[in-house]
Amino acid sequence: MPKTAILQPGTTGLAGPMDSLGALLREWLPRQRWFAGKDRPVTDLRLLSMTELFPGCLHLLVHADHGGAPAGPGAGGVPAPAGTPPPADCYQLLLGVREQLAPRLRRAFIGRAVEGPLAGLAIYDALYDPRSARLLLERLRRPGTAGPLRFEADRSVHIPGDLVPRLLDAEQSNSSIVYGDEFILKVFRRIQPGVNPDLEVPWALARQGCTRVPAPVAWLRTTRPEEATLGVLQPFLRDAADGWTLALRALTTGDDFTAQAHQLGQATAEVHLALATAFPTGEHRETARTAAAMTERLEAAAHSVPALRPYTSRLRTAFAALAGCDAGPPPQRVHGDLHLGQVLRAGREWFVIDFEGEPSRPLAERRIPESPVRDVAGMLRSFDYAARQRRPWRPEWARRCREAYCAGYASRAGWDPRKKHALLRAYETDRAVYEVLYEARHRPDWLDVPMAAIERLAVRGG
Predict the structure, then answer these.
(1) According to the model, what pLDDT value does residue 357 have?
(2) pLDDT for 122-135, tens place per residue?
């Protein structure tokens, strides 16, 4: 059982507990999938906020400073200017504190504190603890406050109190708990000031009557040290499968996937149309500025990944071709990181999820209106990724899916991405460059997948 409360429930404190937690967290944080600074040591941890949600469960916001420079480009693929301070990140932690750790929580064990007010106690990741997960849902069911934390909900939606929680293992940048196959709570790990798009966008689309995106039913935010979104509860599509799984299944069985790809294109266009209504559209940017930003990302990626260098001069032509070309539809809010893993199919319907965007990009940057072609290019690249998961590679499968997806998109959007060839090629090239950098850093065995696209885009021009 948890020891007597360290703080009074709902109160905060910043002093002594870090004497107990600092050394443990420095060792534990870099091993987590959602920790962004794996290639840099943690040089300093500062406690920004701590609240005891209930006895034995601490909510922390921790500021991590990283020594040294990251390998290659920083956020957005652009190196930080000379003299820029080393990057730092804020992380959300829910820590359990017990005298004795139950065997079922061994996987969540962080360590045993040796000094400070928690000396002798076992510290663990409380999201693995069904008791803590149930109590967290209870706080969301009954909106209120706990120190700087704010629990809020759509009061028109009933959330049962007896739902059994289970922590998902699949996510990389966040943590998610499913409650009774009825709701899913995404707990953001890396916290940036402001409203997270994964709350802002689905809420706005729900007000527009868009049914392609599950609407938020409750959420958690903080007011200190700055306003920030910490978690979002949404309906869980229990019978759904993600697009990536369905595509690989079709490839394995030899089934055709073009009908699903066509319907997915229609769903994407419907979401884009709803986004254009829910949020202000932007002014067309000078294509030269877009080309310059893409070229800068290319140069930075080539600096880090030698395999990219032989293609850079020819890839620049994809960006240079933007000058004077049709700029396409006006910039608007988009998904920002659309691929087959970000869509779910339940029955015959497609749903779009995870509007957080690329977590490595600043929050303000993720909310800037962009060309919807960016999302289209992301999905086209995802079809290519799926096709290359099976040997022998089936390029005709990817080509048919790409054609069907664009045709479906055009049938709803009123414009055809395939007729914006220079624009689509530039955005697909930019996406492939991003993929090369990502795979080189995190999954070197996958590097040949985006490099094949790089060769196609450089040699044949698309």
Answers:
(1) 87
(2) 999 999 999 999 99
Asked if residue 28 has pLDDT above 90, the reply is yes
- For the stretch 395-416, pLDDT in tens is 899 999 999 999 999 999 999 9
Give the other-Cβ count within 10 Å of 390's Cβ: 12
Alpha-carbon distance 391 to 129, whole Å? 41
Burial pattern 110-140, b for ≥16 Cβ within 10 A else e, equals: beebeebbbeebbbbbbbbbebbbbbbbebb
Give all strands (DSSP E) within 392-435, no chain letters: none
Handedness of CA 309, 448, 428, 339 (dihedral sign): negative
DSSP class of residue 212? S
CA 170, CA 338: separation in Å to the nearest integer? 17
Q: Residue 462: what pLDDT? A: 53
Rounded Cα–Cα distance for residues 215 and 232 (Å):
10
Question: Roughly how many angstroms between the first and final C-alpha of the chain, as a whole number?
Answer: 61
| Nearest alpha-carbon partner for 148 in 219, 52, 21 | 52
Identify whether the C-beta of residue 88 lies closer than 8 Å to the C-beta of residue 65: yes
Separate counts of helices (H) and strands (E) for the chain: 12, 16
- Full set of structural domains in the chain with CATH: 17-127 (no CATH), 136-235 (3.30.200), 241-459 (3.90.1200.10)
Question: Taking a C-beta distance cutoff of 8 angstroms, is the pair 395, 416 a contact?
Answer: no
Torsion angles phi and psi, residue 199, rounded to 5: -100, -45
H helices of 330-372, where? 363-366
Q: Is residue 69's pLDDT more than 80?
A: no
Of the candidates 97, 12, 93, the one whose C-alpha atom is nearest the C-alpha of residue 56 is 97
- Report the C-alpha gap between 181 and 185 in whole angstroms: 11
Residues 298-324: tens digit of each pLDDT: 999 999 999 999 999 999 999 999 887
CA-CA distance, 146 to 223, in Å (whole number)?
Answer: 11
pLDDT score, position 284: 72
* Cα angle for residues 394, 398, 404 (degrees, 5° grid): 145
Q: What is the Cα 163 distance to its own chain's centre?
A: 26
- Strand (E) or helix (H) holding 367: none
Residue in the structure block whose two tokens are 């009061």: 155
Rg (CA), the chain: 23
What average pLDDT does range 199-224 have in this prediction? Answer: 96
> pTM (2 decimals)?
0.88
